[in-house]
Specification:
The protein is about 70% helix and about 5% strand. The protein is mostly helical. Helix 4 packs antiparallel against helix 5. A hairpin with a 2-residue loop joins strand 1 and strand 2.
Length: about 120
């Protein structure tokens, strides 16, 4: 006998170990990404909350306004903080539509960082 979709057909039953586990896989992927970005997240948060660190970046960034410097680092911090959740959500859903949405959000964050970087760094 055979099994379809984890349901028992006949006398034999197979267990589909991936059925209903997509949320756990998403959480695991998010946890791995969070571990990988922990140091950059900590650094960007430190730069965002301590405007005197602007002096560490000699050159053009030193001439930027304090508000622009803090805004740039807050955007970077928010992007890095959202990244594990976005990756986990994308892995959990694994549909074309949700991956497209996640990709669009990441692309918008990258564009925002590039624009702020161009305004305040270069």
């Amino acid at each position: 006998m055979s099994s379809r979709g984890g349901q028992r057909v006949g006398n034999d039953a197979t267990v589909d170990v991936t059925e209903g586990k997509s949320g756990l896989w998403g959480a695991l992927a998010g946890l791995i990404v969070a571990a990988l970005i922990a140091v950059p997240l900590s650094a960007s948060f430190a730069f965002a909350t301590h405007p005197t660190t602007q002096q560490l970046f000699a050159g053009r960034l030193e001439d930027a306004s304090t508000g622009g410097y803090a805004a740039f680092w807050w955007v970077v911090t928010l992007l890095l903080a959202a990244l594990p959740f976005l990756v986990g959500f994308g892995v959990a859903k694994l549909s074309v539509r949700s991956l497209t949405i996640v990709g669009a959000i990441v692309a918008l964050f990258v564009i925002a960082i590039m624009v702020l970087g161009q305004l305040f760094v270069f």
